[in-house]
Design a protein that fits this description.
single chain, mainly alpha, disordered N terminus
Length: about 230
């Protein structure tokens, strides 16, 4: 019997919240989502959102526009994922081949790694923000209901921008803690272990930031997205 070899598929990204809990960051008790969002929205935005949610149905969906948007979004999603994931790599940091001065402190040794993570976080945020705006424009052309969803997503994105930035700044402090743990355990092999941590957290952050985009894409195949 001939054996058929199957390609090895990459493992799915980890949940960012689960990864942070695994690393010892206790989850912060949160108020209900509606209450948190209400606190981050201005009164004018809240009024506009209320009007959007209570507006009567408008123009029916254009199946051609919806199909074209789904096709474009699927291809663009794979392109964005591939481009961002390829940027996570850095041959020098991955190999741990950078020379170490005898009197170098751990913060000095760690600096290139944190700079790499910060740069990738900025790139992820910028690229996905652009993709999300382009996707909203496609939704707006598909139907009045999808246009309302796109406008609602724009308000939510703006409201969550600052809290999201604050939350992601905590990643650097957590990585410093991980680096210290690896460094104290084995000063010869701490770099590869830290590099593995960096890859895990970047993949998890990418997946986290793509969740709203995936929701918009799913709405393109839903008869009643709101």
């Amino acid at each position: 019997m001939q054996l058929i070899s199957r390609p090895v598929l990459p493992s799915p990204p980890e949940s960012l919240s689960r990864l942070l809990r695994e690393w010892g960051m206790a989850p912060v008790p949160l108020a209900p989502a509606a209450a948190r969002l209400g606190a981050w929205l201005g009164w004018a935005d809240a009024i506009t959102i209320s009007q959007l949610l209570t507006a009567p149905p408008g123009k029916a969906a254009s199946e051609a526009a919806r199909s074209e948007a789904r096709c474009w979004a699927g291809g663009e999603l794979e392109l964005v994922r591939a481009q961002l994931a390829s940027g996570f790599d850095n041959a020098a940091l991955a190999s741990g081949s950078e020379p170490e001065a005898e009197d170098a402190t751990l913060p000095q040794l760690l600096a290139p790694y944190l700079q790499h993570v910060a740069q990738q976080q900025r790139t992820i945020a910028s690229r996905i923000t652009t993709f999300r705006a382009q996707l909203r424009a496609r939704l707006a052309n598909a139907s009045d209901e999808l246009a309302r969803l796109a406008q609602l997503d724009e308000y939510v994105e703006r409201a969550l921008a600052s809290p999201e930035r604050r939350a992601m700044t905590g990643v650097a402090a957590l990585l410093e803690m991980r680096a210290r743990r690896h460094y104290d355990a084995d000063r010869r092999r701490w770099r590869p272990r830290l590099w593995s941590d960096l890859q895990r957290v970047l993949r998890a952050e990418l997946d986290q930031r793509l969740q709203p985009v995936l929701g918009l894409i799913e709405a393109l195949g839903t008869s009643s997205p709101l």
